[in-house]
Structures are given as C-alpha cells and as structure tokens.
Amino acid sequence: MRLTDEEKKLLDGGEGYLAQRCMRFLVDYGDAAGAECLVDIDGTVDLHPGVNPCWVPDYRLSQDEIEDAAKRGYRFKTVTFTNKPVPGFIIDGCEGCLTYPSSDPAYRDRRMSQIRPLIEMGAIPTFSCDYYLSGTFWPTAGQHCSWGESSAIPWVNAVLGARANFDGCFQAAFIGKIPKYDLHLDENRVATVKVTMDGELKNDIDYELFGWAASEQLEMRVPALLNVGRPTVSRLVKLNTGLTSGGQVRMYHIPGVTPEASSVEAAFRGNKPSEEIVISREDLRRVYDLVNCASDKDVDFVYLGCPHYNIAEVQNAARLLNGKKLRAELWIMTGPVVYYLAERMGLRRIIERAGGKLMSGTCVGELNGELLPYRVMATDSAKQNYYVTGHLHPREIQIWYGTAEECIDAAVTGQWRGEWKR
Amino acid sequence: METVTYMKKEEIIIRGRTVYPGKTEGEALVSKGPMMGWGNVKADAGYTVERGHPLYEMPFKGKILILPFIRGSGGFMAYGASALFGSNPAAILISQPMSIAIMTAMILKHPVMTDFDRDPSKAADTGDFVYVNADEGYIRIVKGGHS
Fold first, then answer.
1. Which CATH architecture has domain B11-142?
2. Mean per-residue pLDDT, A322-333
3. B134: distance to nearest CA of chain A, Å?
4. Is there a contact between B93 and B104 (Cβ–Cβ < 8 Å)?
5. ipTM confidence
6. Of B17, B98, B121, which to mutate for an interface test with A (greatest number of A Cβ within 10 Å)?
7. B39-67 pLDDT, tens per residue?
8. Where are the domains of chain A?
9. What class, spelled out in words, does domain A292-413 have in CATH?
10. Residue A360 backbone class (left: φ over 0; alpha: ψ -120 to 50; beta: rest)
C-alpha cells in the first residue's frame, strides 16, 4: 500500500506508540485487502465496544492500554458511535428479565465500566445496531466512513450515499483513516442488476422478505430496485436487513429515493443491466416459509426489535398493548436513546403494565445462550429468527415469523395466529 | 497377471489473489451457496450450525473450505477464530472478496485466497483434493480426490 509521509511517520512511531500500533493494523489490513492507499475518514466510525473494539485479536489493545490511553487524554479523531456491546448485555430494563447474568444490574454496571474509557476517548454511547437512527449525526453523501454491522452497511452506502466497508474499529476511530477499496471506490457503487418487484409490498415485513429473496439471487452485486414504493424508515431498515441476510447486498439504488440515483439511467451510469430479476409475492412466500420454522402454536416468548425498534415502532407496539394482559413473555428491544424517549412518553409504563419488557442495548442473539429455555418463540425479524436457532445450538427452539401485530397478538393470547397474506 | 490401468484424474488450476500466504493441501469441503456467521459457527467444535445448511455440523478441521461469498454478519470471522481451538480449516477459498473475508484471514493465519479467474466453489466439489499455493497465487483441484 502506498503511504503518505504523514502516514509513514505514524507507522514509524513518530507520533507515539498507540498511533503506531493502530497504523500497523490499518496497513496490514489494507495490504491484505489489496487496497492502494488509505483514505481520510471525513464521515463517522461505528465500533462494537466490549472486549472487541478491533475484529482481529492480534491487533487488539488490552483493557489496560485503552484505560491508559483515556487517562493520558488521547481522543478519537472521528465522530465514533458504539454499536451493541460484544458479548451482549442489557443496558436499560434488565431488572427481572429472568436471564442471567444480564438480569443483574451489578453485572451491567461492571460491563459498562469496561466501556467507560472508550466513552472518555469520544465514543458516543448509542449502544445500538441501528445507532444511525438515534445518533443525531450522520455522514453526508460522498463522505468516507468505517462502519461495522451487516444491516447498517446498506444504510451508510445506499440510503445516505456515504461510503463504507464493514470494518469499523478502534484503529479507524483513533487514526481517522481506513483502507480505500471496495465500496469507497466509484466503480463498485454502480448498479449492474435491475430488480423489479412484481406485485405490492404491503407491510413492513414484506420489505425484509423482498430484500432476502432479491439478495439470494444478487449475492454481492449492486442492484437498482424498482417498484418498491417510497419506503418508510422502518421499511428501509427491514429491507437492508433482508438484503444482508439472504445474501450480501451492501449497496443499492432506489431511483428517485436514494441519493446516488435520481433515475434508473443514473443508477446504471448509462450502462445496460447485466441481468434483470423479477421478484414476485411467491418469492416472498418462499422466504416466509423458510424462516417460519415452527409447528407448535403455543407461544411462550415474543421478541421484537431486530434491528432495534425505532420510536415509532415502540409507539405502535405500546398502542397495541394498551390495556392488554400478556400470556407469553414479551421483550421489546431498542437503543438507550429510544428507551429514554419511550420512558418520557409513558410507553414503557404501558408495555410493562401489560406484562411486557422494554429493554435496550442488546438482542436475543447477542445474549447467545443466555435465553431461558423457551420452547416456542415469535418475532417480526427474519434475521433474528434465522440466526437464533444457531445461537441456541444444540438446544432446539421453534420460531414463528410474522408482522409486529401478529407477534403482539401471540404475546397477548399465547397462541400463534399469524398467516401469509397473499 | 493383473492389468492395472491408471486413469489420470482431471486437474483444474485456478489463479487468484492471496489474502494470507502459505502452502497447504487437503480435501475440499465445498459450500455451493454462501455461509453466515454470528453465533452460527461453532469455532471450538469446527462446524457450522446454520439452519438447513448443506454443511450443517460437518467438521471443517484440516479441510480446504471453499465458498462463493459470505452472507450476513461479521460473525463469519469465527471461522478464523477456529484456529484458536485447532479446529480450523487448512485454508479458506472465498470466490467473492469483502472486508469480512480479509479480517477472517488475518485471524485464521492460514492460507486464504480470493478474486479467482474461475470460481472454485463451482469448479470444486466436496471430496476433491486441493493444493493451495497462496505464496505463488494459485490452487490446483484434483477432481475425485487424491491422484
């Protein structure tokens, strides 16, 4: 990789030991990736706090080293957000949630104290997989970023028109640079495949099913998505989650909606699509059947919030729960910012009065084996549904998938009554 | 007296880009579709528990793991972390590159290649024998097993 004089100085230790360690990672990573150079991050960085602010153990700084850096007054160069901590723990609403050790506030406080040095260095404690919704500060179109959450990568690239690979880490935040390759480069952001929805996308989960079905065929290619309407924020998040679960679509265009394509022609930069794919409601139905891996209608656990619910989704859930009494355990998961809003709006009280729990900072998957031995779960997230059976392995669990309304109905009645809507 | 006829097995040589160098060889374990991570790779046991995956619970220790691309989470890096338990593949060949593959290689510290001139996940089948020369940037697939 070609380095500037300033970068060589960092690598040679001319700017101190910590900068040298961080540069070593960026250079080795860039060389392995085949990048020609580094690029200055003028956008934002997203990292997973906890034991893992760097993905590659050999390059990780120890807890002591990070605490020492914070004490010495070292600060991140970039605006840096914290994703969900790894391994997961519940930040708000952990009390009485029946899972151990996350139900213990002392455990939560101990884990939080490990993250405090990162916050002192400038990390913003959004603690959410969709921190970009509650973070109040976005990269603008064209800015270079370094993010790290599969469902968030299409948000930064497609929805915002900023540029990022999945590589958010301590080193990127501290140095403010990242290898310039793949989605940082113009030529890798142009649509090559036209995907047309034949039929209507009727509700939020249809967007996740569409994304999943399309990405199975797209694999990693960049599509222009046609006839998908003007999706709400909730639907875009669902779409992005599907696109990075069935396949690995990190960049797409919705002509007239996303910033890098005002028209279909602009999405393809005047080139002809290499392939045209049509997705029908039957394709959505196939994915719906794939993720619905349950036969027992007696539901004992309902999980909402993958990716973390935004405030409108929490509000909708609270309205559906108002005045109800639950027969099944219900978790609604969000980030701490949305939790705070829901608290102020009285939504948490409504959810709790029904017998449900509002929580922040993690999810069932991230808590791994901590989930109590529920037998039959329901969720409105195909992603969470598909991963959780692996997380709980070798324990077996049945998981239903449907709309938020169907999931809340299951929490109220203890029965799964969801069904495919043509 | 017996007559033995030696049939030369079909060999395929494919060039690619080295992500992590080294030379190794072994039996191919091929995923024709993508593989995912995030809690679905049992790094210690050395197999995937992705629901319905054709390689479900099939050990990858010592194999040449071949797949077209990574789908979903960065948790795929658990394939790299399997090296900490000694249950790791001898090499990983990922047809379509991305950052998660690069960092997986940096964790694995065994040969990893990508960007091939022919897709090895299509050319190879489980049970083929594969020589990986990541130092010189090519692989050799012997169809049907060891020649």
1. 3-Layer(bba) Sandwich (3.50)
2. 98
3. 12
4. no
5. 0.96
6. B98
7. 999 999 999 999 999 999 999 999 999 99
8. 5-186, 190-289, 292-413
9. alpha beta
10. beta
